[in-house]
Amino acid sequence: MERAPSNSGGTLGSNTPIVGDPAWSRVLIVEGTSGIGKSTLIDQLVRRYVADRPARKLRTLLHLTQAHTYGPIAVDEDRETLTAEQNLRHLDNVVSMLEWHVSSLTAETRIKFFAVVDTLHFTHCHRPGVLNWEHVSNLDGRLARMGARLLFLHGSSQTLWERGIAPRRDEEFITGYACPRFGETLEEIHNTSSRNRRACANDSRVRASCTAR
Amino acid sequence: MRQRLSGTSIVYREIDADGAISSNLEEAYDFWLS
């Protein structure tokens, strides 16, 4: 088997671990307010990837839903007991797990790891809201070093209502999650989501430095 | 266009969810795998 170029920073027998080249991984983090269409887009991305692959050529494919990225902190969020340390520890666990997948590819010459993550540190700076950008800057640097990319989905308040709330009035997202967290009625849920949408969009605009690569 | 968020390192892109879902998929797929 052809081996990857020796840019991995270590040799067998030394104390320096061999680390896989990030070139052989593709990690995408999808961010945006609840109901804007993240899950729909991710569902289509994963199905498209599988459909595009030839038979017997599926590579390591990781799809982290909010059950893993947000769920573990939701209980303490609801109890209003969540601390910044708890939130950071959870994010560190997720980032460390992604790092393992990337760094393990020490003998590859092609892309072998594909990951899609439904919300991470960007969302956590807005909701639950115990973290800020200073808290997560180190995690952001680790994600950047593994070549991860952040996709921010933004849209109008009308789109949020038409695609994210009204059609899902009888689905678990509304009946079991958004109500009563975001409000008791669809209109209240929409108002809360719209405020969160504006806050995220404003933050992304402020932070976007428009340095094209 | 790829962008960076001020004070952060990660490569970043915005997609307009008001647009057609099919075109959003194409852009997101390309951004993920390119």
Give me a quick take on this structure.
Chain A is built from nine helices and four strands. Chain A has about 210 residues and is an alpha/beta fold.
The portion of residues forming beta strands of chain A comes to: 5-15%
What percentage of the residues of chain B does DSSP assign to strands (E)? 15-25%
Helix content of chain B: 25-40%
Measured between the Cα atoms of the first and last residue of chain B, the distance is 13 Å
User: What is the number of beta strands of chain A?
Assistant: 4
Number of strands of chain B: 2
Ranges of chain A with pLDDT <50 over ≥5 residues? Answer: 1-11, 209-213
Q: Estimate the global geometry of chain A from the Cα principal axes.
A: globular
Would you tell me the overall average pLDDT of chain A? 85
Kindly report how far apart the N and C termini of chain A lie.
Answer: 33 Å
The number of helices of chain B is: 1
Order of strands, widest sheet of chain A: 2-3-1-4
Helix content of chain A: 40-55%
Low-confidence stretches of chain B: none
Largest sheet of chain A: 4 strands, parallel
**Radius of gyration of chain B over all CA atoms, rounded:** 11 Å
